[in-house]
Amino acid sequence: MKTRKISLILGVVALILSSCASLYDHYTYTETIATKIQAVSLVEQSNESYSLHASEVTALKNQLQKMLAYEEGKAKNDITVRMWRVLNNDEKLIKSYLTLWEEKGTLSPVFIGEAKPQIEEAFDILIAYEEKKDKKTEATIIDFIDTIKK
């Protein structure tokens, strides 16, 4: 009887703890990786004429919007939504990079080399959070977002 009571208490505690946060979502995880690959590939090609890659840029922008819409539809998902909003912000990270590429026509290898790690980091942080869903990766996302806002 005592073992059953302890098992019941542990089950209730586990249920309460799991209901406080969003759970791992394989779709989000794989699509975030795919979006990162798509974004980094375009950054690496931005020393070429924008016009050669305009349709790929449009596809990436659509993917970013799709992921934001998907994440906004999930409950208990504020941190992930905040990060996708940063990635969808026209004045931050990948979206501002794509706008600059469109305006300039081509970007220099030096600029590409400086921007690429920042864009990769944003996706890597999001991927790590989706994979682990722990306080450390949550704090990393919050710190990153706070730094980007400055």
UniProtKB/TrEMBL annotation:
Signal peptide: 1-23
UniProt entry keywords in alphabetical sequence: Signal
Entry protein name: Lipoprotein
UniProt source species: Dokdonia pacifica
